Amino acid sequence: MADVQAFRGFRYDLGRVGELSDVVAPPYDVIDPALQGVLYERSPFNVVRLILNKESPADTENDNRYTRSAQTLNGWLQDRILLQDSARSLYVYHQDFEVEGRRFTRKGFMARVRLERFGEGRIYPHEETLSGPKADRLKLFRATAMNLSQVFGMYPDAEGQVQAALEAAVGRALPLQATDHLGVTSKIWPVTDQHAVSSVAGLMGPKPIFIADGHHRYETALTYLDERRKAGEAKNPDAAVNFVLMMLVSMSDPGLVILPTHRLISGLGALRADQMRNMLGAHFDVETVGQGPDAAKSTWELIESDGGQDLLGFGTSADGVWQLARFKNPGLMTQLAVDHSLSWRGLAVAVLHKVVLEKLALETGSALPKCAYVHLLKEAADALENRNCEVAVLVPPATMSHVEQIAGNLEKMPPKSTYFYPKVLSGLVFHSLKC
After folding, report:
1. How large is the average pLDDT for residues 294-306?
2. pTM, two decimal places
3. Residue pair 160/250 in contact by the 8 Å Cβ criterion
4. How far apart are CA 111 and CA 428, in angstroms?
5. Angle between helices 215-230 and 131-144 (to 10 degrees)
6. Which domain holds residue 270?
7. Of 39, 109, 245, 395, which one's alpha carbon is 20 to 30 angstroms from that of 8?
8. Which residues are within 8 A (CB) of 269 and not within 5 positions of it... i.e. 6 or more apart?
């Protein structure tokens, strides 16, 4: 059973730091050097100084970005910049945002969740992880002993019982509020009502949790727990190190948005539409939509209205033509991805990479094409118009059902299959691993 608990979070004293908007930041892995600099300038207390401290050419083993994060954190705790809540709380978390002209509100809550090894409990990943980011985050765990950012998890709740219990507890209370650099507004309410907390814990107990974002942080939390156990610590099963900070959202929440991840492909040569059609013809039914940005929009609208996973849109920069290609040979995916489930083989992104990119490279004797990734239609259309790629491919996003089926089968989805938008902000609440 999933063990979801309230906890005494550490939060900024806004009387000391000013506006919450000035001290929050997106997750470390989407902060580039330019944004890092902006966040540093925004406030001497911005959480970027904890989650992604600046590197220095003079860094040593004893003085580096991780030790500076720890020194900063300890200073903020000693100076009471960060204060621990007096009562165990769940933290209701709403995000108001816009995508492609449509407004959404994603509703969830933050809690600490008992760590489980994948395949041994009710927590499931859906992405592969890399050793580099895990090594980076482990150094930060060791230095700070604090969950500085949340893992983003999802759970099935078609009737919305969990969120309903939390909304009732919040009532008409005013939230703390922050707006990030993308214009996303985050709202947070601490919930201390014991009846609501117990109700949520009971409702969450039998539910599986699927990790949407933060796979590296989750696996790093497991590694850190192993280290603490080997050091003779964490003997108490309820010690904080046995848990990880999570933001949890119902998979039925109307604001749970998965953006598509379109591909910008280079390495195929300056293909024209007729050449692209010939290359795809053996395994796809191809039709021309038109030329230019308006055709890109029409292509995407047709993919969206279709709602399936067998339709891809191809734009060729040599002539600006956009074409729709419907996959007609699912038996080929059985051959090319024999070790994967039917659900995995049916993903549009799997078809694109296995049938088009990998098979094409094998047949032509060329290297695998290079891919860049964008999420908005305009980004893909502009890249093609400006000839920043040779082929742009519009890819329908995976659905919640795909994540549940594939992750529940203990499979990992193909890389860049999902992009949950918006990212969960760091700096709203912290979970100490010491208490």
Report:
1. 96
2. 0.92
3. yes
4. 12
5. 50
6. 261-396
7. 39
8. 390
